[in-house]
C-alpha cells in the first residue's frame, strides 16, 4: 500500500517524540508499505517564529513571513530523516521546492494548485521513506508560500490525492475526532466515523483537529482519511462520504475564538448599502462570516458582521477610509467574543434543534449577540469568557441522549 502519514507539531515536539514517530514510520515501512510522511514544525515553533517577527516589525511583509515560517517545517523533516537513518532505514527529506508544491501567490494563505509527483515517485522507487515539509509551497515567482495555520493537514491530503495513495493518516495529540474539543468539553465522545460534509463544517467552524481545506480536498478526491493519535495505538476516526452518524441530528460542536465583531451604526436606509460595504471588503480580500442587518429605525439601519481577529484592524481601517461613501455614523468593534456552533446533517428536518440550543445557553446564563443558521448548522456569537460553560452546557443537552445509547 502507499500510505501518507502526517504528524502534527506536538507529535514531533522533542527528541523522544521524534524517535517515537520515527519508529512508527519504520513499522509501517517494514510491513511492506511505501511511506510518504508529512511533518509540521516542532511544538510551538511556528508561534515562536511569529513572535520573533513581531518583535522587529508589528506588520511584517507577508512574503518575508513565509520565508521565516517555512523554516520550521524544514527543521522537522531533516531531523526526522536523521532519526530514521539512526534506526538503520533509508529516508530522504524534501521541502516544497524540491517536491514541486506549486501554490497561488497569496502569502500566508496560499492554495495548492499542483503537486509534482516525479521526485517523490523516484525516491519511493529507490525504496526511500519520503519525508516532506508540510504547510509550505512556492508560487510562480519561485517564492516560498504557506497555506495558513494548520496547513500541514492540507499538504498531506493533497499529496495523498496526487499520489493516489491508499490511505492518509493524520496523527495528532488526540485519538480521533470527538463530538467537541475534548480539552474543552468534558463529555465529548470520540466518533468512529464522520462524513466529509460534517467534518468540513466542524473544521470551518473552528475545530482545528483538521485544517478545513484538507477536508475539502479529501472530499473532492475521495481520499480515505483517518485521524488518530501518535502516542497510542487506538484506532482513530474515519472521515468518509456517507456515515451512520448522519442519522443523528447533531454530530458535533465547535468553538472558534479567532473572531471579531464589527458593527456599522446609523447607515442611511437605502438600496445598495450592503453591496457597497461587502464588495469593498471582498475587494480587499477580507472574509466576512456572519452578517446581521437590523430593521430600519429613523430611516437608518445597523449592520453587524464577523471577520477573523487578524483581519479586524484592517477591516475597521478600510471602513473608516470609506466612511463618507458608505455614509454611516460610527463603528463599534469587539474581539472578546467566540463563535459556538453545532453541526449535523439531520438538523434540517428537526425543527426543535435551535430552541434546544438556546435553552442550554439560557440554563447557564449566556447572552447571545448574533445568530446564524443553515441547513446543517446553527452558530451563535457569545462572549469569549462564556465559551467554555456554553460549550459544555450545549454539548450536555444534545449528547446526553447519545452517551446513554452508546
Ligand atoms: P496538530 O499539531 O497535530 O496538527 P492541532 O492542535 O492542530 O494538532 O489539532 C489537534 C487539537 O484539536 C486537539 O488537541 C484538540 O484540542 C483540538 N480539537 C478541536 N476540536 C476537536 C474535535 N472535535 N475533536 C478532536 N480534537 C479537537
Ligand atoms: N506549523 C504550522 C502551524 O503551526 C502548520 C501546521 O502545524 O499544520 O500552523
Ligand atoms: Mg493542526
Give the biggest sheet.
8 strands, mixed
> How far from one another are the termini?
33 Å
- CATH class of the domain at 2-173, named Alpha Beta
CATH superfamily placement of the domain at 2-173: Acetylglutamate kinase-like
CATH topology of the domain at 2-173: Carbamate kinase
Bound molecules: adenosine-5'-diphosphate, aspartic acid, magnesium ion
Query: What is the typical, i.e. mean, pLDDT?
Result: 94
Q: Could you explain the architecture of this structure?
A:
The protein is an alpha/beta fold. Among the domains are: 2-173, Carbamate kinase; 260-334, ACT domain (Alpha-Beta Plaits, 2-Layer Sandwich), CATH 3.30.70.260. Helices cover 38% and strands 25% of the residues. It has helices at residues 15-30, 45-56, 62-86, 96-99, 118-125, 152-162, 196-204, 212-221, 273-283, 309-321, 323-326, 353-363, 387-405, and strands at 2-7, 34-39, 91-94, 101-103, 112-115, 129-133, 136-138, 144-146, 167-172, 193-195, 225-229, 237-240, 252-256, 259-268, 291-293, 300-308, 330-334, 337-343, 370-374, 377-383. The chain has an 8-stranded mixed β-sheet, with helices on both faces. It has a 4-stranded antiparallel β-sheet with strand order 13-18-20-19, sandwiched between helices. The longest helix has 25 residues, at 62-86. It is globular, with a radius of gyration of 23 Å. The mean pLDDT is 94. Bound molecules: adenosine-5'-diphosphate, aspartic acid (ASP) and magnesium ion. Aspartic acid (ASP) is lined by residues 8-9, 40-41, 46, 72, 134-135, 149-152.
Amino acid at each position: 500500500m502507499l500510505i501518507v502519514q502526517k504528524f502534527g507539531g506536538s507529535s514531533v515536539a522533542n527528541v523522544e517524540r521524534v524517535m517515537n514517530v520515527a519508529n512508527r514510520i519504520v513499522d509501517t515501512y517494514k510491513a511492506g508499505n511505501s511511506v510518504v510522511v508529512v511533518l509540521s514544525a516542532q511544538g510551538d515553533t511556528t508561534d515562536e517564529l511569529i513572535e520573533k517577527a513581531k518583535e522587529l516589525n508589528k506588520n511584517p511583509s507577508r512574503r518575508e513571513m513565509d520565508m521565516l515560517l517555512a523554516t520550521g517545517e524544514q527543521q522537522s523533516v531533516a531531523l526526522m530523516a536523521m532519526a530514521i537513518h539512526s534506526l538503520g532505514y533509508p529516508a530522504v527529506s524534501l521541502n516544497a521546492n524540491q517536491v514541486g508544491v506549486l501554490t497561488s501567490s497569496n502569502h500566508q494563505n496560499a492554495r495548492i494548485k499542483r503537486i509534482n509527483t516525479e521526485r517523490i515517485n523516484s525516491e519511493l522507487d529507490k525504496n526511500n521513506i519520503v519525508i516532506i515539509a508540510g504547510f509550505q509551497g512556492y508560487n510562480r515567482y519561485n517564492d516560498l508560500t504557506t497555506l495558513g495555520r494548520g496547513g500541514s493537514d492540507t499538504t498531506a491530503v493533497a499529496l495523498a490525492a496526487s499520489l493516489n495513495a491508499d490511505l492518509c493518516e493524520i496523527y495528532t495529540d488526540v485519538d480521533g475526532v470527538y463530538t467537541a474539543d475534548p480539552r474543552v468539553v468534558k463529555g465529548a465522545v470520540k466518533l468512529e466515523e464522520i462524513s466529509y460534509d460534517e467534518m468540513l463544517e466542524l473544521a470551518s467552524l473552528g475545530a482545528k483537529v483538521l485544517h478545513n481545506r484538507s477536508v475539502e480536498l479529501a472530499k473532492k478526491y475521495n481520499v480515505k482519511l483517518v485521524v488518530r493519535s501518535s502516542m497510542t495505538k487506538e484506532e482513530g476516526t474515519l472521515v468518509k462520504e456517507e456515515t451512520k452518524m448522519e442519522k443523528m441530528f447533531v454530530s458535533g460542536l465547535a468553538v472558534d475564538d479567532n473572531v471579531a465583531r464589527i458593527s456599522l451604526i446609523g447607515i442611511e436606509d437605502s438600496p445598495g448599502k450592503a453591496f457597497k460595504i461587502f464588495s469593498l471588503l471582498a475587494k480587499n480580500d477580507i472574509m466576512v462570516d456572519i452578517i446581521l442587518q437590523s430593521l430600519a429605525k429613523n430611516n437608518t439601519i445597523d449592520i453587524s458582521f464577523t471577520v477573523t481577529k487578524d483581519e479586524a484592524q484592517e477591516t475597521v481601517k478600510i471602513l473608516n477610509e470609506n466612511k463618507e461613501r458608505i455614509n454611516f455614523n460610527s463603528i463599534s468593534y469587539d474581539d472578546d467574543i467566540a463563535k459556538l456552533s453545532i453541526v449535523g446533517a439531520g438538523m434540517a428536518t428537526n425543527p426543535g434543534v435551535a430552541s434546544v440550543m438556546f435553552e442550554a445557553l439560557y440554563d447557564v446564563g449566556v447572552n447571545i449577540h448574533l445568530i446564524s443558521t443553515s441547513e446543517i448548522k446553527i452558530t451563535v456569537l457569545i462572549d469569549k469568557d462564556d465559551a467554555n460553560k456554553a460549550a459544555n452546557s450545549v454539548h450536555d443537552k444534545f449528547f446526553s441522549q447519545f452517551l446513554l445509547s452508546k
